[in-house]
Structure formats: C-alpha cells, structure tokens
C-alpha cells in the first residue's frame, strides 16, 4: 500500500503530492511523519494507492502514523484544492486551516493522560529492586496516573515493570467541558407566522444561499435554531457562525440549553486543551453543531445539513492573515460539497449580499416586525454645530443630557457609544503643531488618563506623557478628540451618583472580560455603559431605554467607499440595543452633518432606501461590487528590500495593464497610509479593476515578488485600507 502525502511545509516548492509506502491499515486523513530531504517532517495522507506512480524501490516508508483516527474529514481534500487555487496558498497551508493549532504543534499528547494498570501477569522482580516492588504494590491497589507513578518510583522502575509485562500504559482522553451547561434545558418556542413562513421558504427554495434580512429583535435566532434542529433530526450536522463569540454569551447559553452536549463551541477564549476537546467532540461525531467565529467554518463535521452566518455584514468574517479568505466564500464551497443551504442573516445586510438577493441569485427572507410588536426606537438627531455655537464645550449635547436625566430618573439604563477608546485621540502642541507619534508605527498616540501615559493602539507601546513639546519645547500641549475615558470622566461630573461602566480594549482583559462587563450591566450593577463598537452587539438589555451615539460622523468621513454602509450598519445595530423590552427606546445621534443622507436613512430605518441609493452611487462611480479594489501589500523590515519588491510587483502589474488596459480603472504604487507598523515598512500597489478576470494573475505576481524577508500579499476589497 502507498500513501499519497502532502508534507506540512507551506512552500510553493513542496506543494505537490509525495508517495510513501505504508501499512495496509492506513486511513486517508491521518497525519504521519515521513522522511523528506534528509529530515523527518509531518504530513497529511490525502489518498492511498496500490501501485506507486514511480519506481517502487525508490519509495521510502512512512516513519510514523500518529493519528489513531484520521484527523481530517474527507471533504478537506476537495476544499484544499479550491482554497489553494482561489487564494494561491500551498495546499499544506489550506489543510492547516482544518486542524486546531494545538494539534499541529504537537501538543496533542497533553490532552491525553497516561495511566498505568497492573496486568495481572506473573513476573520476577529481584528483591533488591525496591522501587519496582513498591510501584507494583501500589498498582495492585488500583490504576494510577503514569507521571505521578514515575515521580514517586522513578521512571526507570516504571518502565521496567512495563517491560516485564507486569504493568501497562493506557491513555484516557481528558474531558474539559468549557462552558458549564447553564440553566438547564430550554424548549423550542412556538414560531410566529412570519418565522414559520421563513423556515418553509428556505427549506423549499432551490437556491443554495439564503439571505435573512430581519430588523433587530425580529426573531432571526429562533429561525436559525429551528433550521438546525430539523437538520439534526434528519441525521445531519450544522455550523453556526457569529462575528465574535465572546460578545455573544447569551446566544451561546441559548444554544447550550437548546441542544445540550450536541453543541460544541470553538473559540479563542478557551484554553488550548478545551478547544481541542470541543474540536474532537465534533470530529468523533459526539457533537453535531459547531458554533464559533470565522475559523469555525473549518469545523471537522461530515454530512453538514445547514451553515449559518449570523451578522453576515461583519468585517470580522474576513481573515486578515494568510490565506486571506472570506468566510462566506468558504461556506459556499462547503455548502456546495454537502448539498446544503447557507443562511446569511443580518439586520443590515452587506450591499454585496443584498444585491445578490435582489437580483435573484440568493433567496431572500424579509422580517420587518419585532417579535414583541414593539416599535423600533426613535432616533433623534442632535446637531453638534449648534452646540458649538452655543458654547457647549462638552461631548454631550443638551439633548442627550436631557434624555439621560429622564432615563436615569425613571430607573432605566443607558448606553453611550463612541468609536475611540482612551482619553482623547491625540496630543497636539498648539505652538508648533507637533503630534505625538509611535516610533514603530507611524500613527498618533492616544492619551490614557488612568496610567497617565500615551499608548499606540497598533502595537501596544506605551510612552511617558511629555510635559513639554519635544519639538519646540512649548508648554501648550492640548488633547484633541474624544475617547471613552474622557466621556466617562465627563459623565461622572454630570451624574455623580450614577454608576458607570466602561467597555473597550483597555478594560476588557482575560478570558471572560467581555462577559463580566456585559453581565454586570445586565444585572443592573451600573446605570450607564460607555463603550466602543464592542457594545454594538451582544447582550439583550431589557432596561436600556436610551442609546447615545457620540460621533456618528467618525466613520462617515473615512475615505473609503464603504464608509456610508458602515455608518448605516453601526447606527442601526447600536440603536437596536435600545427599548428591546418594556418602555419605548430612544436614540440620540450626535452629528456635525445632520443633513447627510446616510443618517437620514438610518433615522427612518429605511434599509431599502439606503440600499438603492448606495447601489446607484457605486454603479456610477464604479465601486465594488461593480469593480474590484485590489491591493498588493509589501511589508518588510528593510526599506530597500521593500522598495525592490514593490517595483517588481508594480512592473508586472503594468505589463498586465498593457495587455488589457480596459480592465484597469486605477493603478498606482505608494506608501500605505500607515507607513510603518511594528517596525515594518508598508508599501502597496493599489488598483481598481473592472472585473475579477486578472485576479489570479495578480496573485501570481505577489507570490513571485515575495521573499523570505519581504511579505507580499493580495487583498481583495480590503475592509481597511490603512
Ligand atoms: P434577532 O436575532 O432577530 O435580533 P432574537 O432572535 O434575539 O431577534 O429575538 C428577539 C426576542 O424575541 C428574543 O428575546 C427571543 O427570545 C424572542 N422570540 C423570538 N422568537 C420568538 C417566538 N416565536 N415566540 C416568543 N418569543 C420569541
Ligand atoms: Zn506602535
């Protein structure tokens, strides 16, 4: 028997199938160790054959098989080709996506515990071998952990017992259940007519991808759960993706209560061992539902009956490390392979998805009503230009303060949202215009009052707050902009008796950080929650009747074709936190451009209006999806090496343009907007293309221009152009 092996070296030169002779009981999907170029490397068995494709005497044997059961599901081998082709990565790199990293790094043995047991055999032990005798005595009293026995009686004594056949080692998989099953079981709810219609429509539709556009609180989750339950009943499995799992503890609790041990949760907050256990429960078929963020799309499930991507518009579904895949693309491949539906859900679908649905390529379910019949919260606009004219220096408009007074005096809770953490955006010298910047990253630093220091939000470096300007020595250093800390300070002054919580990257630490803050707010241990976009999703807070959005403009002025879409999404999502139960909710939206059409659509909850306008503009200006923005990034320690690679890539792209000029709307090479991050210089070839026709050539150019010391990669419609 011969094994067809992909070696686990992600390099284009080793990216082919190698053959090794192997035992007859070898299974496809197992991981092996094989001799390769004078060393022993890890590899994946992707196929078996009876006759090798070249001289049998030249074929070396597999050195070791170290999976008892194949780690990879058969589907991997089909997807491996698709991913490798689509994102131009070696096949080994695409296979790695299907394994938890702790498994690849050879830490797997940690998840097993070795035990020793007495075999019952008769054997000779010399009376002088006291340690062996003592160990055997102990074993006769019952099985014992192997390592503890070695510590007590010495490893050599234990090995001698095993060698004589008196004791044997066996492995037990440790079970670490990550999240305790909280609150018992929960039965399915009786679906509303709208939910029933949605489930029926989706199941009957012959379209592979289904978009559910449902306002916040319209009961999308219950539709997902019903679809999953029906697939489980039919003997199939399911994948359920959420943007960031630590932000959705309620959703997890709900899934656990509904599906019990059939649900496995894969997320980065778990310890390596816990993650492995959950992964293995899926692989072994013990659990049938994989729940997690982006990477859970690679869950080791077979016979998948439905894949769900909740909050499908969220940018976290795009991987920012190689391969830079889009989760929906991978999900489509898996749905195709398994012959199942892919469900995309959102209150604010991405423009791209909604176009697919409105042009009939995706199915579309629209839910316009909240389950409890409550109206959407009213959104009021506070014109901040008037506040400035009135001489209000505060970050809080008069309107927001009046609403806060009302909410707090009636015993309700409020959420204040803004985009920036820290005390203020930047420190500026008003004499010479100096702005404090990070030495490694070419971005301005943010003042943090609690530690009285300046921090870089890109690399985490901390700097002492200067008492005078380092450039001109002037003493007039001013903070400009607003951050979460500063807002909290202002609120404390205005409402001394209110209890205020802050949630941003600085206050959220540790594995349960998010959960603790959200839970404390949900338990009404605070009156006001101030936070960054982390608070836009997540918990359902019944007592929140007011949401303040301090800087709705912030995202509007990014020079990015998606800024309008993002602003609309953000306002709608944040507003959805208000008035979910009892009293009617209100939202105060502070802005310097109240006449902006995006804000007007958001205030009216007019997704269709927003969408139609957006499509018209993108068509006219040739922005995605009516074009493709493509960026070849060049990142290196050394400037000269980066520039050389940049030239090489650019010259190659220019050749493409010479051959098909009609494909190019725009092409240029330049510094990236942030010239340096973590000490590495950043350059880019930026282009806008009419179609995807040249995409694979551009991937080839990036592969050809990269060197061990220069990272060159392609981004398609990047969510972030920094
Ligand atoms: P969405 O995901 O669309 O924002 P949710 O699924 O969170 O909405 O539903 C909003 C609220 O309505 C939740 O509290 C949920 O428990 C409740 N709910 C959903 N479906 C039903 C139903 N069929 N009967 C009763 N309550 C429901
Ligand atoms: Zn930095």
Which helices and strands appear, and what pairs or packs with what?
Elements: E1 2-7, E2 18-21, E3 31-36, E4 39-49, E5 64-65, H1 75-87, H2 91-96, H3 101-104, E6 112-118, H4 130-140, E7 144-145, H5 146-153, H6 155-163, E8 167-173, H7 193-204, E9 209-214, H8 220-233, E10 237-241, H9 249-259, E11 263-266, H10 272-283, E12 289-292, E13 304-310, H11 327-338, E14 341-346, H12 351-358, E15 363-367, E16 378-383, H13 384-389, H14 398-409, E17 413-417, E18 426-429, E19 446-448, E20 453-455, E21 462-464, E22 477-480, H15 484-494, E23 500-503, H16 513-522, E24 528-531, E25 544-549, H17 563-575, E26 586-591, H18 597-603, H19 607-621, E27 628-636, H20 639-659, E28 664-677, E29 680-689, H21 695-705, E30 710-716
Adenosine-5'-diphosphate is lined by residues 189-192, 195, 214, 216-222, 371, 540.
Polypeptide structure, described:
The protein is α/β, with parallel strands linked by helices. It is 31% helix and 24% strand. The strands form seven sheets. It has a seven-stranded parallel beta sheet, with helices on both faces. A six-stranded parallel beta sheet has the order 16-26-25-17-24-23, with helices on both faces. It has a five-stranded antiparallel beta sheet with strand order 2-1-4-3-5. The mean pLDDT is 87. The structure holds adenosine-5'-diphosphate (ADP) and zinc ion (ZN). Zinc ion (ZN) is lined by residues 438, 440-441, 456, 458-459, 461. The site of zinc ion has 7 residues, from loops.
């Amino acid at each position: 028997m011969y094994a067809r092996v992909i070696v686990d070296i992600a390099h284009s030169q080793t990216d082919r199938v190698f053959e090794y002779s192997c035992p007859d009981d070898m299974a496809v999907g197992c991981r092996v160790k094989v001799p390769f170029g004078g060393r022993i490397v890890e590899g994946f068995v992707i196929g078996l054959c009876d006759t090798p494709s070249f001289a049998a005497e030249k074929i070396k044997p597999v050195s070791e098989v170290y999976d008892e059961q194949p780690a990879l599901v058969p589907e991997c081998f089909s997807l491996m080709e698709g991913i490798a082709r689509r994102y131009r990565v070696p096949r080994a790199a695409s296979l790695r996506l299907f394994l938890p990293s702790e498994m690849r790094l050879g830490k797997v043995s940690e998840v097993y515990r070795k035990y020793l047991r007495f075999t019952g055999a008769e054997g000779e032990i010399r009376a002088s071998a006291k340690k062996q005798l003592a160990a055997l005595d102990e074993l006769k009293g019952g099985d014992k952990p192997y390592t503890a026995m070695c510590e007590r009686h010495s490893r050599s004594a234990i090995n001698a017992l095993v060698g004589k056949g008196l004791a044997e080692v066996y492995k037990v998989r440790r079970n670490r259940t990550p999240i305790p099953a909280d609150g018992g079981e929960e039965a399915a709810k009786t679906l509303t007519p709208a939910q029933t219609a949605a489930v029926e429509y989706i199941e009957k539709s012959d379209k592979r991808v289904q978009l559910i556009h449902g306002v916040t609180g319209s009961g999308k989750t219950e539709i997902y759960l019903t679809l999953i339950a029906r697939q489980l009943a039919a003997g199939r499995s399911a994948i359920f993706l959420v943007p960031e799992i630590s932000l959705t503890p309620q959703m997890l609790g709900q899934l656990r209560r509904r599906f019990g041990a059939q649900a496995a949760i894969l997320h980065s907050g778990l310890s390596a061992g816990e993650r492995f256990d959950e992964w293995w429960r899926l692989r072994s078929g013990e659990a049938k539902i994989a729940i997690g963020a982006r990477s859970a799309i690679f869950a080791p499930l077979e016979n998948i009956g439905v894949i769900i991507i909740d909050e499908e518009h969220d940018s976290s579904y795009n991987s920012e490390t190689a391969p830079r895949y889009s989760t929906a693309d991978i999900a489509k491949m898996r749905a195709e392979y398994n012959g199942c539906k892919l469900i995309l859900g959102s209150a604010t679908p991405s423009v791209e998805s909604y176009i697919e649905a409105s042009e009939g390529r995706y199915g579309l379910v629209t839910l316009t009503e909240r389950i409890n019949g409550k109206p959407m919260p009213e959104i009021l606009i506070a014109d901040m230009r008037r506040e400035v004219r009135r001489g209000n220096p505060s970050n809080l408009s008069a309107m927001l303060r009046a609403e806060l007074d009302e909410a707090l005096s009636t015993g309700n809770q409020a959420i204040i949202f803004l985009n920036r953490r820290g005390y203020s955006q930047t420190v500026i010298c008003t004499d010479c215009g100096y702005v404090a910047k990070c030495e490694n990253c070419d971005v301005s630093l943010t003042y943090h009052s609690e530690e009285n220091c300046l921090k870089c939000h890109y690399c985490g470096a901390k700097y002492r707050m200067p008492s005078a300007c380092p450039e001109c020595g002037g003493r007039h250093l001013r903070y400009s902009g607003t951050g979460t800390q500063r807002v909290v300070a202002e609120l404390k002054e205005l409402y001394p008796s209110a209890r205020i919580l802050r949630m941003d990257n600085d206050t959220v630490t540790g594995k349960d950080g998010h959960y603790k803050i959200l839970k404390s707010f949900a338990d009404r241990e605070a009156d006001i929650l101030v936070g960054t976009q982390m608070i836009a999703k997540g918990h359902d807070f019944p007592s929140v009747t007011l949401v303040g959005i301090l800087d709705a403009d912030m995202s509007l002025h990014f020079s990015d074709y998606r800024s309008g879409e993002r602003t609309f999404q953000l306002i709608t999502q944040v507003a959805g936190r208000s008035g979910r139960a009892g009293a009617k909710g209100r939202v105060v939206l502070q802005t310097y451009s109240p006449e902006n059409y995006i804000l007007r659509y958001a205030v009216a909850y007019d997704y269709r209006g927003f969408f139609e306008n957006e499509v018209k503009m993108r068509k006219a200006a040739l922005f995605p999806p009516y074009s493709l923005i493509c960026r070849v990034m060049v990142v290196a320690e050394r400037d000269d090496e980066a520039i050389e690679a940049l030239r090489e890539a650019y010259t190659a792209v220019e050749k493409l343009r010479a051959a098909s000029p009609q494909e190019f709307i725009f092409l240029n090479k330049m510094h990236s907007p942030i010239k340096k991050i973590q000490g590495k210089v950043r350059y880019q070839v930026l282009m806008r293309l009419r179609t995807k026709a040249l995409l694979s050539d551009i991937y080839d150019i990036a592969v050809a221009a990269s060197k061990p010391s220069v990272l060159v990669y392609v981004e398609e419609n990047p969510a972030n152009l920094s």
